[in-house]
Amino acid sequence: MSDYFHYQNGELYAEQVPLEDIAARFGTPCYVYSRAALTDSFLQFANALQGRDHLICYAVKANSSLAILNVFARLGAGFDIVSGGELKRVLAAGGDARKVVFSGVGKTVAEIRLALEADILCFNVESAAELERLNQVAAGMGKVAPVSLRVNPDVDAKTHPYISTGLKQNKFGVAYTEAVGLYRKAAKLPHLRITGMDCHIGSQLTETSPFIAAAKKILALVDVLAAEGIHLEHLDLGGGLGICYDDETPPAIGDYVAELLAALRGRGEKLILEPGRILVGNAGVLLTRVEYLKHGEEKNFAIVDAAMNDLMRPALYDAFHNIVPVRLENHAAPLPNPPPHAGEGAIEKSTSSIYEVVGPICETGDFIGHARSLSIAPQSLLAVLSAGAYGMSMSSNYNTRPRAAEVMVEGKVMHLVRKREEVEQLYSGESVVV
Ligand code: LLP
Fold first, then answer.
1. Which of 252, 256, 301, 337 has the fewest CB atoms within 10 Å around its CB?
2. 433: in domain
3. For pyridoxal 5'-phosphate, which residues are the binding ones (predicted)?
4. H-helix segments, 162-317
């Protein structure tokens, strides 16, 4: 557990706020973020990159809540976006369009227009067809689009196949062997201005060697281009640094950056990075309450009020998230003080057992964790750890479940940064045929 989520007298806190207080005030399920943790991870990058011309473009997809974007914007971050919607969020949160890079394989004409109007820093182009489209749209607007080609370095990121992006069989980027030809082509298109080269090989990497292998391949191409008179202003080495969910031992931010800088020694280009998960993953937990305990013949189930619509990672990738009690067993709440939202006579003795921690959704794949040893009772609060990245941003309304509330903690203060959705909002745009 991080310094920002810790036990004090058997009670789990986010910074200086007991998670029980947050649940009592805002209900569950609820995402809770530590502002200090967000700031800390960002500053680790900034410090490691000090003295080097750089821009840290937070990958918005990891967690696109305005409050999170705003924290990073205030710290001077740029943003890596993959849709017009993410661009609008960045602007609404006070981000600077001039620090935005736009990745993604399927940019629509409308999205390209929006980004050109906003004057973003760079389009990370992923195909020859996109290059043509970008030139055309820019021409129509009398603009010149800043361009980087996302080169697929064909490096194995050694991560989950669904989140590995830098192999030639993946849909991302332009083929390594075609990149130089496409740069030549881009150099001739009048409404494009070549500014950089980028790559992103995958997510949740726990070793530095694939990053370095990719960087070296990218640098070799940069040299080929330079020999042809095509000079780049920036190199964007993407995101992908992993976090500890269970027993992984990913490199520390400072070590990862130091290795990248060593590989770039003697290079003058501005370095752009696109970290997502590492900035937010361990800065957030998902707070959930046990609704029922069901002791079956083969398995025991803890049915909680968070589900796969709130946190999809376990169902989608079989991802592991640690699940811990908000109040440790030997620190039971005093009896005259029943927990809020408790049903009739809700104080029950905790039962220590191995539980399948599951949600209420009608799918067998709706689980948060398998075979967890927990001492809990109905109404117990649990915290699902490492839920700050790809949690809320991948949530849905499946089973017509309103999306969770989000709270940002700052020292002793809790801020509600997203209200729990109301069911009526979910169908407000719908109509019936009469
Ligand atoms: N840049 C690009 C172009 C990306 O596609 C991604 C993530 C990032 C940066 C940020 O990667 P990070 O630093 O967060 O690893 N939903 C999956 C992760 C998908 C990542 C997609 N691309 C998960 O929950 O594990």
1. 337
2. no
3. 240, 274-277, 390
4. 179-188, 209-227, 253-263, 277-280, 313-317
